[in-house]
Amino acid sequence: MRIILSSIFLLIAFVSPVQAQGYSDEQLESIRQLGRLNGVALNCRYVDETRRMKKALVLALPKRRQLGELFDTETNDAFLKFIEQRRECPLEAELNQQVDQAIMDLDKAFARD
Question: Biggest alpha carbon distance in the chain?
Fold first, then answer.
C-alpha cells in the first residue's frame, strides 16, 4: 500500500500544471522552442530577438502563468546548456530566421477559431 501511495505521489508531482490545463503538445512545443531560442539569444546578446520573442508570446498566448513559466524554464535550461556545451553563437541573421519560424509555429498553434 505504501509503495502504491508513493508511486501516485510521484506521478502527481511530475505531472506539469501546464499539461493539466489541456494544452496540446503542439502548443507546448511552440513555447519550448521559443524558450530554447531565447536562451541562445541571451547568451549571444541578441537583445532585439529576445524582445521580439517576448512580444510574440504576449500577443499569442492566453494569460496563464504556467505558460510563462514554461517559457522561462526552457530559456534557463537552454542558456545553461549553451554554456556547458561551449557552443558558438550563430549569425544573428540565422537566429532571426529560426525565430521567424518559431513565431509562425506559435501563432499557428494558438490561432483563435
Answer: 58
Q: Is 2 helix (H, G, I), strand (E, B) or coil?
A: helix
| pTM of the predicted protein model | 0.78
Q: Which of 97, 92, 91, 99 is nearest to 36 (CA)?
A: 99
Q: For 12-18, which contacts have Cβ atoms below 8 Å and span 24 or more sequence positions?
A: 16/66, 16/70, 17/66, 18/64, 18/66, 18/67, 18/69, 18/70
Cα-Cα-Cα-Cα dihedral sign, residues 72, 76, 79, 82: negative
Neighbours of 17 (CB within 10 A): 11
Rounded to an integer, what distance in angstroms lies between the CA atom of residue 17 and that of residue 9? 15
pLDDT in tens, 35-59: 999 999 999 999 999 999 999 999 9
